[in-house]
Design brief:
The complex is a heterodimer of chains A (142) and B (689). Chain A has 142 residues and is mainly alpha-helical. Chain A is 61% helix and 0% strand. Chain A has a domain of 81 residues. Chain A contains 3 helices and no strands. The longest helix of chain A has 44 residues. Chain A is flat and about 70 Å long. Among the domains of chain B are: 160 residues, Four Helix Bundle (Hemerythrin (Met), subunit A) (Up-down Bundle), CATH 1.20.120; 137 residues, no CATH class; 122 residues, Tick-borne Encephalitis virus Glycoprotein, domain 1 (Sandwich), CATH 2.60.98. In chain B, 61% of the residues lie in helices and 12% in strands. A 5-stranded antiparallel beta sheet of chain B has the order 2-3-4-5-6. In chain B, strands 1-9-8-7 form a 4-stranded antiparallel beta sheet, with no helix packed on it. Chain B is globular. The two termini of chain B are 53 Å apart. The chains are: A mainly alpha (142), B alpha+beta (689). At the A-B interface, helix 1 and helix 2 of A face helix 1, helix 2, helix 15 and helix 16 of B.
Chain lengths: 142, 689
């Protein structure tokens, strides 16, 4: 009885810890999208510092001169970080546009010859008149 | 259940080893499947150690005295409550309990990071499993197996030390252990940061709440221990600089330093090497504290430990952690450079740095005094012990500097403060402190340290109250809010800052209570029944204590009592009745021959009256039941302000909870991440944030 209990315990534990390896389970070991990128981290630090300077000034811990000087410097840092973020964002939006066109091509909405976007179900392109692909809008896609 | 428990402990050994190896290899090879398997060992070992712990509890509850641990720490007549608490009553059980808490926290850390911080997880899991493996090895191979059998079955166990049969003692060790084990999580993430090479402030950001949680449990555990000593040890004190007390204070000091220095790294990108070193030092000190308490290395009033053979294993482990940590920091040194530098010595970061140096100074002083008996015996063959006078002489000035820094830090701006503003901000608090000092001097206070403590405390409290007032006023003006909503938002938008200030108030309360020690009154008096003794309190009241007589009780197996002599005293304060106090001496059935003194305490907000039955003719009173032998010697103590320590604990809990509470911003930012909007609304420079 004891031996049986022991075997069951060991068996369950071994199966539990080996399962991911046997099944070849996948798990991310990378930084996730919702974590701070370098530019976001820089913006955050600069904004936090601005917050502190603001607070210290309003509670009378900073002179007006120091306050102005520090605010100018920190605002510049924050702006630089935001610009970097925007560049990241711009790159991301271009990529998003390319992806959308690809999607449209696949769905048969974009003309293969001239790149014109056509209403759903068009049989000929409204821009150049060439025949749209055989493939019509697949069910369920938007 | 008990056989399954012992088996589970053995199964945990290879599983923990597997988890450690796979964690590190999975991180190195970036293999997700290996890391997932390593993460599963965290859950598996938790279940296994839970089974083992239940096995030990099962042995206690079912009176299985064939086990060494049960036979030595329990008896048939022990209350069921203390039988369950038997898990942490002795060395063997508490090592298992320590491991159980570590496993619990590891599960929480892994579970909450299933989809976050993935680059840290392989190494964090590897580190945690390595730590768990160490404790499993200790339990199985260092002659401390709680499932070790005696080879025969005694009729009854030796019984639990009655001094441990006290509810403070039931909660004090688990609370401290929660503090010790919670710190393993920040340590594991620090190691993960060093190994993975992601050396920005992310690991601190991830473990910030763990650090605060650990500090909170350590603080509560230390104060609960003081309360236990005060109520149960029967000498009227709450702190004796005993090695075991010091052992719990050491990680508290470095954790306090760490809690402050991480703010410099988060705000200013400085002190990266320092923070890495502090997290490793604090972690090693939590192990050191466990080791000191549970190895029997240094004799102390606690002496609940019995085995010295595990000393070698523990010392080796601590040595490897320090050496490994040092190598990792040196390896990553180029990436750990500061991003910025201290701009001025009149800045908050400089004040924080100073606070850190002072706390580290206190740590080394306490450690030196604690280890001196051991070191002197090792090197000179003669044991030199230092007592409370040494610790007080060193730590009182250090404590006062820290106290003053709690007033200075909040008023100095980050980066650089101007002298003119300092003058403006310090004028009122310094004046309040000064006036307090002068008034107390005029009232006849002549104890230098106490006078300094009260003066600085008044200064600090004024600073903190002013901070709350200025912050609320500024927020009310800028946001156009009423004062009450402004006050609420002030705190809720930056819980860490304002929760921290509330904890500072608690520390001031506790320090003020310590400073009242020179006024403690102690009178020893032998009295016959019916006689009255007057005790004058330094705060003005007069207590008259009338000894009403001694009642005795012989052999009460239900309460484990061999005999009991209870003295009753009627108390009047300034002529008005204030109730009765009882103080007693007890002899126990198990452990045989064990005696204890129970004290009577009459508490008010301003002071405690503390009565000890110091001496009584036990033969005459208990054995012969002779009515003429009722004369007894009492020690009467009046302890002004001592209640400040316990009240301070509640304020400390309040402040810590404010800091620990999940902030509205975090909840909101989690929601906006999902909906794709700005994930960092809390970074907006709104006032009081």
């Amino acid at each position: 009885m004891t031996l049986l209990g022991a075997l069951i315990l060991v068996g369950v534990v071994v199966a539990f810890i080996l399962q991911p390896i046997i099944q070849g389970a996948r798990a991310s070991l990378q930084r996730e999208d919702d974590e701070l990128t370098e530019a976001e981290a820089a913006r955050r630090v600069a904004l936090l510092a601005l917050r502190d300077v603001e607070y210290d000034y309003h509670t009378g811990k900073l002179d007006q001169d120091d306050y102005r000087a520090m605010k100018r410097q920190l605002s510049a840092e924050a702006l630089a970080a935001m610009k970097a973020l925007e560049e990241d964002g711009a790159r991301a939006s271009i990529e998003a546009e390319i992806a959308a066109v690809r999607q449209g091509l696949r769905a048969g909405l974009v003309c293969g010859s001239c790149g014109q976007w056509n209403p759903r179900g068009s049989r000929f392109c409204g821009g150049c008149g060439s025949a749209m692909g055989e493939r019509q809008e697949p069910a369920g896609s938007v | 259940m008990n056989i399954l428990g012992e088996l589970a402990l053995w199964v945990a050994l290879p599983v923990a080893a597997w988890g450690m190896v796979l964690g590190f290899i999975g991180g190195r090879e970036q293999r997700g499947d290996l890391v997932l398997s390593a993460e599963r060992t965290v859950y598996a070992v938790f279940i296994l150690i839970l089974l083992a712990s239940l096995g030990v509890v099962d042995n206690f509850v079912n009176d299985r005295f064939e086990y060494w641990y049960t036979a030595n720490y329990s008896s048939r007549n022990l209350d069921i409550f203390y039988k369950i608490a038997g898990l942490w009553a002795g060395q063997r059980g508490s090592l298992l309990f320590w491991l159980l808490l570590l496993c619990l926290f590891s599960v929480l850390a892994v579970w909450s990071n299933k989809r976050k911080n993935r680059e840290f997880m392989p190494y964090a899991v590897g580190t945690l499993m390595g730590l768990q493996l160490f404790f499993v090895v200790v339990l199985l191979f260092a002659e401390v197996n709680p499932f070790e059998k005696l080879g025969f079955t005694p009729v009854d166990g030796a019984g639990l030390n009655p001094q441990l049969q006290n509810y403070w003692m039931t909660f004090h060790p688990p609370t401290l252990y929660l503090g010790f084990t919670a710190f393993a999580i920040p340590f594991a993430f620090a190691v993960a940061a060093l190994l993975s090479g992601r050396l920005d402030s992310r690991w601190i950001h991830v473990t910030r709440k763990w650090i605060l949680l650990s500090w909170f449990f350590l603080s509560v555990g230390i104060v609960l221990g003081m309360r236990w000593a005060y109520e149960e040890l029967g000498w009227g004190g709450y702190w004796f600089w005993d090695p075991v007390e010091n052992a719990s204070l050491l990680p508290w000091l470095t954790a306090t330093a760490f809690l402050h220095s991480i703010q410099i790294q988060e705000n200013r990108g400085m002190l990266k090497v320092w923070n890495m070193s502090l997290v490793i030092l604090t972690f090693v000190l939590t192990i050191f504290a466990t080791f000191l308490t549970r190895s029997g290395l240094i004799e102390s009033v606690h002496t609940f430990a019995e085995n010295t053979t595990i000393a070698f294993i523990f010392l080796t482990f601590m040595g490897s952690v320090v050496a490994g940590g040092a190598v990792l920091i040196l390896y990553r040194l180029p990436q750990l450079r500061s991003e910025t530098q201290i701009e001025s010595f009149l800045s908050r970061e400089a004040a924080f740095l100073f606070n850190n140096l002072i706390l580290l100074g206190a740590t080394f002083a306490v450690m030196w005094g604690t280890l001196l008996p051991l070191l002197s015996e090792g090197f000179f063959g003669e044991q030199i012990t230092v007592g409370p006078p040494f610790f007080n002489r060193v730590n009182i000035p250090i404590g006062l500097v820290l106290l003053a820094l709690m007033g200075i830090g909040p008023v100095i701006a980050w980066r650089r403060a101007s002298r003119r503003n300092l003058r403006k901000n310090f004028l009122v608090p310094v004046m309040v402190g000064g006036v307090t000092g002068v008034v107390l001097w005029a009232l006849g206070v002549r104890y230098g340290w106490a006078l300094a403590t009260f003066t600085i405390s008044a200064f600090v409290l004024t600073v903190i109250v002013t901070e709350f007032w200025k912050g609320t006023r500024a927020r009310a003006r800028i946001e156009g809010e009423g004062f009450i909503p402004a006050f609420y938002h002030l705190i809720s938008r930056n819980r860490r800052r304002w929760g921290g200030y509330i904890v500072h108030v608690a520390i001031v309360m506790i320090f003020t209570a310590f400073a009242a020690e020179p006024w403690y009154v102690e009178i020893q008096q032998t009295m016959e029944p019916g006689e009255t003794t007057e005790v004058a309190s330094p705060l003005g009241s007069t207590y008259s204590l009338t000894y009403e007589g001694m009642s005795t009780n012989v052999r009460d197996p239900d309460q484990n009592l061999a005999w009991q002599a209870v003295a009753l005293l009627r108390v009047e304060r300034d002529g008005r009745s204030a109730g009765t106090l009882r103080t007693e001496k007890r002899g126990y059935i198990r452990p045989e021959g064990q005696q204890s003194t129970e004290v009577g305490i009459l508490s008010r907000a301003s002071e405690d009256l503390y009565v000890i039955l110091a001496d009584v003719d036990l033969q005459g009173v208990v054995v012969d039941n002779d009515p003429a032998a009722q004369a007894a010697t009492f020690t009467f103590l009046v302890k002004p302000l001592v209640g400040g320590i316990w009240a301070g604990l509640f304020v400390l809990i309040l402040g810590s909870l404010i800091g620990l509470w999940p902030s509205a911003e975090r909840v909101r930012s989690a929601a906006t991440v999902r909906s794709g909007r700005d994930p960092f609304p809390d970074a907006a420079p709104a006032l009081g944030d």
